[in-house]
Design brief:
mainly alpha; 4 helices; 60% helix; 0% strand; globular
Length: 140
Amino acid sequence: MAPSPTPPCHHHQEPLFPDTLLHITHPQQAAATALRILQHLFHTLSGHTTPQHWHNDTRHQLLNSLQHRIQRLQHCLPHNATLFPGQAPRNPLITIDKYFRHIQDFLRTHNHSACAWDHVRLEARLCFQHLHNLTRTARN
């Protein structure tokens, strides 16, 4: 039997993906940004507070895939990869760190409830969509 859907909930101050990250055009900056997002996703989804009703095998497959992509990007980026401050209004890595800190705060504020995790799952899905665009930019 499939798990029952998470009951709807209402949260204030939900984390929102930063718009400034949608306008990165420099390939190295896009790769560094994608790497940081992947690292944060891995950290968030590998924590011990993930919902019990999530399928463990599927979650481990996702974590393995994230780890593989992280390793590939780390291999492609120079060790001293610098970001180009003129390419965006703010340093994208700081923006990403703040966004994921907000996600962690959101989970804590809502006691890592199934509903809060459902919102984080939707945010992760959005991150994957943006990662697709960032990796396309990084290849150019």
